[in-house]
Amino acid sequence: MKRLILLSVFSLLTFAAQAVIYTWNGGNGDYNDPNWSVGGGAVCCAPPSSAEIEISSGEVTLNVNRSSNAIKINGTGSLRLLSGADLITTRGTGATFADVLEIDGAGASVIVEDGAIFRLRNSNSSSTRGIYMHAGASFTNRGTTEVNINDANGAAIYLQDAGDTFTNNGTGFLELIYSSEMGILSFGTFLNAGEIEIEETLDNAIEFRGPATNNGTIEIENADGIGLVTTDDFTNNSSGKIYAGSRNGIIGTIGGAGFTSQVGGTVVNRGLIKVDNFDDSIGEGVLVKITDFTNEGNIDITHVSGRYGISVVTGTLVNINCANIRSKSPFFAGNTGRLINDGNIFLDTPLSSMIFATAGINGEITNNGQIEDFQGSFDLSNALFINNGLVLQPISGMYEYDEAVPNFLQGSGTGITVNGNVYLNSDGTNVIGLYKRVPNEFITNDTDAICEDTFYLSLDDGKSCPVIMKIKFENPITPDLINASEVMNIKTFLQGPLDVGTMLMNDDLRVAGLIPLTDPYIGNQTITDLTILDDNGDDSIVDWVLLEISTISDPANVLIQVSLLLQRDGDIVTRFGVPPNIALPKLCETYYLRLRHRNHLGVAVEFDATF
Question: What is the pLDDT of residues 276-316, one digit of tens each?
Fold first, then answer.
């Protein structure tokens, strides 16, 4: 009897662990309609949250909050989430279906409308996929689809066959919170016009092994593997933005390449590919391998690394006219890899800017456009670098105002003429000099240039795409010979003699004849015109003061020291009764201006070079 009771309890527990399958009976209707067969039996009510759902024909719509176990759409079945729907689907350990959502067949589809939310997740112990599509299935997201897979089987979102199509429309938001393996693996067609955010994957974040097009935004924060890899035709259109190593301004990490094209297909980038962070031992910013990659837009590698910002191996990367590549990590060309630059390359790496393979057939870099080598690490003499364009490099040495600064623009390509202004700011304001391609000289014509070591040159090689590039002086133009004569109108008051009602000081020392004719501070200023000590009303002399100018960085280093006279109205004048005209050194920092008096505490104020 005891055995029978125990067996009965065990049987009940086993039954309770198995999810019940609710099957839609066909036709179009609402999710809550009593049009479901329970476990293959009688028609019943809407599925409870513990039920698995199968739709083989007809369209089921939902516009309220519901939850379910695993879902399977096959045959000609369709699930459409309308605005206001919030469906949470969690595959439990006892589910019959293998995946959270399986879409099987050319007539099977899921549509998430704008204003609807579809949340897909599994339990910690079930190896499964969030969305599994095959045999020509389709998924259309116009609202929000959220996938969180703790124990993925290959990929959280998996398009198995060439006929499968995933479309994230302009209003669509696809959020992949976590995958213990890949994020998205697609052998079908993947179309994105909305926003895709991938927070963390323990393998590659995205693998497009079928054709894909991006017109929206893809953000990949953390991936233990590659950020985005494509092995088929891929187009990132002009409105497309791909960020690897960041998400919503949060900097993450990429274990491999941020973006890579490999094996086959062609890649065209007309938008933006930006890589913020990648592994310094095995990663790259953009890796091109056995494929053709054309950049018509912008590639931006912001990560500083000894690894490669751009790596071309057994493939070709063409940076077309007016397109831009920016990198803070070196370029690599190896084997039969080729990089052809007809546009603009901006290099800002303290390491070697070009690395060529040392074994086998070396790669090649050809420049027909413009290269800004901001750190001066580009090896122009390497036989594998062919320069038909312009290379802008830093300038070594110290130069004076109005002196020609030669030889910083390298290149002798035909048809290249540069005769433009040099600017202090990248937006083209503050013209401070002129650059002439022949004889390759830059002449400063404004003292504002003295305090800078970085300028901006507008390059135009006749391709109708002028570009602003940096000119860096390894040593700034010398400031020592520049003196700007400044009339300094300074006013101060001594507290003791001041009448706050009239804001005039008394001149008792002058009246008593106690103002010395030679200043009491340095002893190099003497009053020779004694009429200055007459009663001149508000301009009558009160006493001598000492003016000093020093830098904030070294206040003890007094650059200028001059004795002056203080009038009753607070004005500071020379021994001739006029405001001081002082030749200030052109400093590249902030001044201290100090006034001292023999019987009062001194006062100091800050002012910069534009005082």
Answer: 999 999 999 999 998 899 999 999 999 998 889 999 988 89
User: Across the strands, what pairs with 147?
Assistant: 120, 176
Sign of the dihedral defined by the CA atoms of residues 242, 244, 246, 251, in that order: negative
Residue among 215, 214, 183 nearest 200 (CA): 183
Query: Are the CB atoms for 282 and 260 separated by under 8 Å?
Result: no
**Rounded CA gap, 390 and 340, in Å?**
14
Alpha-carbon distance 564 to 557, whole Å?
Answer: 20
CB 455 within 8 A of CB 443: no
Q: What are phi and psi of 447, to 5 degrees?
A: -70, -15
What does the alpha-carbon distance between residue 237 and residue 379 come to, in Å, rounded to a whole number? Answer: 33
pTM for the structure as a whole: 0.80
Tokens of 478: 């010398």
Tokens in use for 229? 């890899």
Q: Which position has the token pair 């990590």?
A: 329
- Phi, then psi, of 419 in degrees rounded to 5: -145, 80
**pLDDT digits 0-9 by tens, 146-186:** 999 999 999 999 999 999 999 999 999 999 999 999 999 99
In 385-528, the DSSP E strands lie at 385-387, 390-392, 404-406, 409-410, 419-423, 431-436, 441-444, 454-459, 467-472, 483-487, 498-499, 504-505
